[in-house]
Design brief:
The protein is an alpha+beta fold and 172 residues long. Helices cover 39% and strands 19% of the residues. It is built from six helices and six strands. It has a six-stranded antiparallel sheet. The protein is globular, with a radius of gyration of 24 Å. About 13% of the residues have low confidence.
Length: 172
């Protein structure tokens, strides 16, 4: 059974970050226990947006659902962390624009147009996804490390097989 009380009471216009294990789902709190969020169209009403469909789909549907139907038993928090970076749009405008999107199907891209982009665009007028930026940064570090290992191997990894065989013969 889902909890009936908020650990942290959101206010209309707040961004809700829901922890889904390896990634976070995002929603916008609109009041009276409801959120608006971007979810794969293949999900049944009330289904949580944590399936692989969110990665594979190029379309998503904007849904208005009760917060507990979206959160389920996952941990969540109010996360308006970008308030320090961007000016918050007037709440009335945020709610008007969010409500206008309900039941619409939008383009979806994990990297350029995911649920976090959707809600940050509503709140700030700037579509941003910190989790994508962090993932891209980690990938760049990973690729950088692989490249560094390759360069080190080329520089320090000894010569060619032929040269190694010639040196071996000299000692015999």
């Amino acid at each position: 059974m889902a909890p009936t009380l908020y650990d942290e009471k959101p206010e209309p216009g707040d961004l809700i970050e829901i922890f889904r294990g390896r990634y976070q789902h995002w929603a916008l709190y609109v009041g009276d226990g409801f959120v608006i969020h971007l979810a794969p169209p293949s999900e049944a009403p009330g289904a949580r947006a944590n399936s692989m469909m969110s990665v594979l789909s190029d379309k998503a549907k904007v849904k208005k659902e009760e917060i507990w139907d979206v959160v389920g038993h996952d941990k969540w928090c109010v996360n308006n962390q970008l308030d320090q970076k961007y000016k918050v749009r007037p709440i009335r405008e945020i709610l008007r624009d969010a409500t206008a999107y309900v039941d619409q199907e939008l383009s979806y891209c994990v990297i350029k147009g995911n649920c976090e982009h959707f809600v940050t665009d509503l709140r700030y007028g700037k579509a941003e996804s910190r989790q994508v930026r962090q993932a891209v940064g980690m990938a760049m570090v990973g690729f950088g490390a692989i490249a560094l290992v390759g360069i080190a191997a080329a520089i320090f990894g000894g010569g060619s097989k032929k040269k190694n065989e010639e040196e071996k013969e000299e000692y015999m």
